[in-house]
Write a structure and sequence with these properties.
extended; Rossmann fold; mainly alpha; 127 residues; 5 helices
C-alpha cells in the first residue's frame, strides 16, 4: 500500500515500478480520486491511494510548508503569500546559492543586437 500526503509522487512510483503508465500522475494535488490496485511481476500487489491530509491544519507554519510544497490545491491558498513564504524559507536556508551569479549559457545578450543598438526583435517590430 502506497500512502502519503498529496502531490509527493505516489502514482509516479507505481508507474515506475510497473514500467508503464497505469496510474494518472500530475504535478497538482488530488489527481488520484480512489484506490487503484495493480500487480507487479512476481505477484506483488501495489495499492495506489489518494493523498491524505489532516482534517484541520492549525499550525500556520506547517500549512505554509505544505502549500509551498504543492500539497494543497491552488484554489485553497493565497499563492502570493505562499510564494513569499517560500522565498523567505529559501533565503534563510540557501542564501549563498540564491545570491550567486546564475549559470547561463555562454551566448551573450549582445549577440542578439543589430548595428543600430536595438535587438533584432525590436528592429523588426519598428519596421
Amino acid at each position: 500500500m502506497i500512502v502519503g500526503i498529496p502531490n509527493v509522487g505516489k502514482s509516479t512510483l507505481v508507474n515506475t515500478l510497473m514500467g508503464r503508465k497505469v496510474a494518472d500522475a500530475s504535478n497538482v494535488p488530488a489527481v488520484t480520486k480512489m484506490q487503484q490496485r495493480v500487480m507487479l511481476n512476481g505477484g506483488i500487489a501495489l495499492v495506489d491511494n489518494p493523498g491524505i491530509m489532516w482534517p484541520k491544519i492549525e499550525d500556520a507554519d506547517a500549512a505554509s510548508r505544505l502549500a509551498f510544497a504543492g500539497c494543497i490545491p491552488d484554489s485553497a491558498i493565497d499563492r502570493e503569500l505562499v510564494a513569499l513564504f517560500g522565498a523567505e524559507q529559501l533565503m534563510q536556508r540557501y542564501p549563498a546559492l540564491l545570491m550567486a551569479p546564475a549559470s547561463c549559457p555562454s551566448r551573450r545578450l549582445s549577440e542578439g543586437r543589430t548595428s543600430g543598438g536595438r535587438s533584432s526583435v525590436r528592429q523588426s517590430a519598428a519596421s
